[in-house]
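It is worth pausing here to work through a concrete case rather than discussing structure prediction in the abstract. The textbook approach is simple: state the sequence, then state the predicted structure, then interpret. We follow exactly that order.
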Amino acid sequence: DHPRNALSMEVARWAAALAPRVVVVENVAAFLGTPHHRRLAGALEALGYAVAATAVDAADFGVAQRRLRSFTFAARGPLPTLAPPARPRRPATVADAWVGLPEVPDGRNLH
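Step two, the predicted structure:
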């Protein structure tokens, strides 16, 4: 267990301090099965939030990388939902992601 895992509870602390209507937490997909996630969800629920979570693959949303990520939503009111991914005809490639980038960084982008 890494000490940084406890940082997820900072989200609940800030939610308590700022009382936003919606809180969104993005993390690795495996976060959803951990005691840290359960503790975070419980803390947000104790603050009056409805909580829902899901895992998605960034490639399904047009990113040129298969990357599983988790999203935890907490809301005082209706929970936000993710729009279904618009599945591209073919997966995006790195070449697709690089379209339009200059060969040498120009100060506006630092690829």
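Step three, interpretation. The CA atoms of residues 15 and 82 lie 21 Å apart. The chain has a mean pLDDT of 88.
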